[in-house]
Amino acid sequence: MKHLIKIFSLLFIASLIISCGGDDGKKSKKEKFKIGTKKEITKVKEVKKEKTGNLSNKGIGPVKSVTLGDIDNNMVEEGKAIFKSKCTACHKMGKRFIGPDLTGVTKKQSPEWIMNMILNPDEMVKKDPDAKALLIEYNGSPMANQSLTEEEARKILEYFRTLE
Ligand code: HEC
Q1: Does ligand 1 come within 6 angstroms of the Cβ of 99?
Q2: Measured in angstroms, how far is the CA atom of residue 32 from the centroid of ligand 1?
Q3: What percent of the chain stands above pLDDT 70?
Q4: Exposed, middle or buried by CB within 10 Å (0-12, 13-18, 19+), for 113?
Q5: For residue 108, what are the contacts with CB-CB under 8 A and spacing of at least 6?
Q6: Residues 38-81: tens digit of each pLDDT
Q7: How far apart are the C-alpha atoms of 152 and 137, rounded to whole Å?
């Protein structure tokens, strides 16, 4: 019996020691976890930075859905003219200028996103993840709202479709 009591008290002490050690163990585990998640967050940011654009993102603005048919050459010509007068102050085709090179933009952004970026850039660069990333990439110089109508923005989109 005495032996049993000794064993039990030893076990009790041992369990106290283990539980204290256990606490420390938990703390360091928590810290490790925190470090781990921080690293993951920066990883996600890096991925976002590399890849702006996402064809399933429609952006934020008046344009909810665009149906594309065969390229309409009249619209292309009108879009090109509007682009020349309203956009070339910041965009040059084939190279980065104040704004991005827009050749091939229809391959990386959805038609809705492009039109919303033209019609609603202020809200887009505040709330849309792709537009926000672009604003950072372009050192905070914002895309200007040129007060186009939806029809004009649609014509510019048609022009963009012809630029590979
Ligand atoms: C005052 C300069 C300025 C003007 C004018 C301007 N933009 Fe921009 N645009 C930018 C900048 C800068 C960006 C990058 C995002 C940002 O910094 O806000 C951009 C981004 C864009 C994007 C997204 C490009 C991408 O890579 O996804 C499109 C599309 C676009 N502009 C179209 C137009 C069109 C069409 C017009 C004319 C109606 C126009 N922009 C006029 C400066 C301008």
Answers
A1: yes
A2: 42
A3: 68
A4: buried
A5: 52, 53, 54, 55
A6: 555 554 444 444 455 689 999 999 999 999 999 999 999 999 99
A7: 27
